Amino acid sequence: MLTMGSLPVLTFICVVCAVWSLGHGQQVGYGYRLVSVDQGSDGSLIGSLELIQQTNTYGPDIPHLRLYVKHETEDRVRVHITDAQTKRWEVPQELLSREQAPADLPVSSRKAKPAKSAFEFSKFAGGELIVSFISNPFGFAIKRKSNGDVLFNSSYGNLVFKDQYLEVTTGLPATASLYGLGENTQPNGIKILPKEAYTLYTTDISAINLNTDLYGSHPFYMDVRNGGISHGVLLLNSNGMDVFYTGNALTYKVIGGVLDFYFFAGTSPLDVVQQYTALIGRPVAQPYWAFGFHQCRWGYKNVSDITNVVENYNKSQIPLDVIWNDDDHMDGAKDFTLDPINYPEYKLRPFLDRIHANGMRYVVLIDPGIAINTSYGTFQRGMADDVFIKHGGSPFLGQVWPGAVYFPDFLNPKTVNFWADEISHFHQMVPVDGLWIDMNEISNFCSGKCSIPTNRSCPGTGFPWECCLDRTNITATRWDVPPYKINASGTQVPLGFKTIATSSVHYNGVLEYDAHSLYGLSQAIATHKALQNLLDKRPFVLTRSTFVGSGSYAAHWTGDNKATWEDLRYSISTILNFGMFGMPMVGADICGFYPDTTEELCGRWIQLGAFYPFSRDHSNLASKRQELYLWDSVAKSARKALGLGYRLLPYLYTLNYDAHTTGAPIARPLFFSFPQDPETYAVSKQFLLGPGVLISPVLYNKTTSVNAYFPKGSWYNLNDMTMAVKSSGQYVTLQAPMDTINVHVCEGMILPMQRGGMTTTVARMTPFTLIIAFPLGFQSTGGKAKGHLFLDSGEDVDMKIAEGKSTYVDFSAESDGKKVRLVSQVESGSYGLSQGWVVEKLMILGLSKSHLSSQIAFQLDGKPFTSSSFTYSVQPLSTSAEQSQGGGAIMELNGLALPVGRNIDLSWTL
Ligand SMILES: *[C@@H]1O[C@H](CO)[C@@H](O)[C@H](O)[C@H]1NC(C)=O
Ligand SMILES: *[C@@H]1O[C@H](CO)[C@@H](O)[C@H](O)[C@H]1NC(C)=O
Ligand SMILES: *[C@@H]1O[C@H](CO)[C@@H](O)[C@H](O)[C@H]1NC(C)=O
Ligand SMILES: *[C@@H]1O[C@H](CO)[C@@H](O)[C@H](O)[C@H]1NC(C)=O
Ligand SMILES: *[C@@H]1O[C@H](CO)[C@@H](O)[C@H](O)[C@H]1NC(C)=O
Ligand SMILES: *[C@@H]1O[C@H](CO)[C@@H](O)[C@H](O)[C@H]1NC(C)=O
Ligand SMILES: *[C@@H]1O[C@H](CO)[C@@H](O)[C@H](O)[C@H]1NC(C)=O
Ligand SMILES: *[C@@H]1O[C@H](CO)[C@@H](O)[C@H](O)[C@H]1NC(C)=O
């Protein structure tokens, strides 16, 4: 319990002049003093801060601040600082529900204890984080109880708190490895590097732009320190911000809102993401089919065009689950319409009936901008319901693909209903299986306040993305031109550049200035809700713009990338970052969005892309076509990589379950499984799927080998399980012929696989194989492996263990070198039994060569096991380039029919 009387009072430390200047000798702020502290009724601590000295740089300082600190859980502490007198903007509870910091408590009128100097408090006896303060100038620090490590210390700079400028700096040890702070394309890999700018402000800038603010805003970072001890830090704030990292300090410069820090204690990287998603919401459950392959293109001219694409995939025997339309199906790029010539309903419907009958799905794009057209129903209803974002009392005018548009305001509950009704109308005409919400940063082809030209048509004859509205000047209120310029678009453009004016107003008077980066989140919530209510199935929504918490509603792709080898490489860091942001369903446009791809690049890209959690080929209107069947070599790579990917579907789908229930990313950096190995901290050209499937792609042209890092242990090649790497924690050169990507499974894993198929619908009903990976050539040291499996219909709204609806199985195997035993423990088995799923095959990897000639006796549930179809074989592991020191063997048990829904206890002597 918090007992103020017994707080250890540390020696008074005067932080002499941590003076932070602008480099022009201009002082931004002098900081605050902590004048009193008191205990809140909720077990929190509430402090009063008083300004030390006023400056006018970036506006006047706010004189009185309220500090609120609460240990919300054993491993999470919140430090919230706001104006003590006036309510300020915070991320709305409707978008991100969380414990509320109390409304202004009359701290000063209560008998608050004057803050003497510095002290510490910790509410929970078992809590791992300790908050301490220095009172003059005020600073707070977060310390880890178990090892005393200081995780965050704001005394490295003066706290600055003005209406439109907040600044806080923490010191960091030079050895810390930082990750996160996106969305950002990081050319130098996944680690946050000193001197690279991190600006967070949602913007329609393509992913080819390096180190600039892109489509999403995620003010979260993970800090991995010596020995892999990790923690996370979220600054929950939706205003634009610059974050600067120098290598030994990190400074936030934020243009509004409040300082609302959450610290997550870890201590493993996985713990950090679990704790982070416990706050912001667990990742949404994705339908089974979403893990199949998706084909899209901007420029599918008509229904026969997409019909041919689907047929060609089938003819080429390349798996395909989902066919997409960008905006080609629309009438004049208007949402919820069909082009009457090229995509008439009477042609599209039979096509959809056919693909649905073949177990495939269809997804289309919608943009937020609603075309201004009095004969367009969606527009009429939107006007009638008054759903649009306003400026000066009337809807804010912008221009996107259909021409002049208004933007729905998803902060308005009426808009959420309007949106659901439009989706429902559309669905009656076009039974889509999911929706793709694009351009929701919001993207606008014009800037500032405009009007519809009266003397010419708009769009006119120019490119559709050229502004054709009459421009008045960019609006110039303090919301449009704040005193501090964040590095928007990497060039300090005005906040309203190519988006809506930040002086625009949402429901309830909320300023676009504050809510700008929340637009994509608010639209994803509305779209997710609409689809779920309509279909009574698990919705699939793909969104471009994201914020903290978007992963609870939608998947993400990395946006417009380039068909280059560099972009192929960059995709990995962005995907891994989104896993840490609680948005694990993510991928990049396979083969590149534009310009023309090349055969070799596309072949290597599908090899990698087959293992993106979200695997979609997408290209631009002006690029050459890039469907995977167009080149024989690419088709061959696709069959091989997607073939393996489709056999791994039960593993991937179980990772979807793990993500949904614990937050664990699907694609993970290597350090998630090997946090004690510092060599893994910067690995950005390989990644793990789940805890132990290592993807080592070729990322350079004219290359047929890959120098891959293998953390300590035995790794088995999933393309040829007789090949293994026994690593002491080292780089190994692997052969990577043009049609092959290296995929390895780590010792200790039991990997559930199936036979695969041309669609996930077919693949998910096939018999199972279990890959049991023991350490290579183990003898008396023994071997252990484990894994688990979640099975359900693949599209129930709820994804959870429920009798008759789903089945969960824990597998474990062990061997002492003389005997092997595999045990499964089934929870809620009836669903698995009703579907007739069986394990047909076991592959036991890593047995010793001495097992080769053994006479083997099998026992099932303690009784001798015989079956007419059952066979087994043992073969040596290859001693090729992927050398197996000491040799080893692989044992295959085939022709089994062990029901997945029933406990298995199979053992045999070697
Ligand atoms: C935080 O930094 C200040 C200034 O460097 C230092 O005096 C103080 O001891 C630090 N606090 C902790 C908990 O390390
Ligand atoms: C569909 O579009 C393609 C490509 O532009 C064209 O060749 C074909 O004639 C069109 N088919 C129909 C039925 O309109
Ligand atoms: C592929 O084509 C075959 C033969 O026409 C057909 O039976 C099968 O249903 C098709 N599969 C898919 C997924 O379209
Ligand atoms: C308005 O919408 C109608 C119906 O969708 C369409 O035919 C017409 O071309 C549109 N008008 C303009 C100016 O885009
Ligand atoms: C149309 O009107 C605008 C604003 O009055 C003017 O700037 C522009 O030159 C006019 N364009 C034409 C083609 O007359
Ligand atoms: C636009 O800006 C220019 C130069 O800043 C100014 O002269 C002009 O009056 C402004 N026009 C409007 C309509 O505000
Ligand atoms: C803004 O970002 C760009 C792109 O990373 C960078 O080159 C530039 O130095 C940054 N400018 C400032 C003022 O931080
Ligand atoms: C392949 O790489 C070489 C250099 O390694 C470069 O000169 C060449 O342009 C690249 N070709 C393509 C198509 O990227």
TrEMBL record:
GO biological process: carbohydrate metabolic process
Location of the Glycoside hydrolase family 31 TIM barrel domain: 284-655
One Pfam family in the UniProt entry: Gal_mutarotas_2
Origin organism lineage: Eukaryota, Viridiplantae, Streptophyta, Embryophyta, Tracheophyta
InterPro entries registered for this protein in UniProt: Gal_mutarotase_sf_dom, GH, Glyco_hydro_31_AS, Glyco_hydro_31_C, Glyco_hydro_31_CS, Glyco_hydro_31_N_dom, Glyco_hydro_31_TIM, Glyco_hydro_b
Region forming the signal peptide: 1-25
Family: Belongs to the glycosyl hydrolase 31 family.
Molecular functions per Gene Ontology: alpha-glucosidase activity; carbohydrate binding
CDD domains given in the database record: GH31_MGAM_SI_GAA, GH31_N
Domain of life (superkingdom): Eukaryota
Protein name: Putative alpha-xylosidase
Domain Glycosyl hydrolase family 31 C-terminal: 663-751
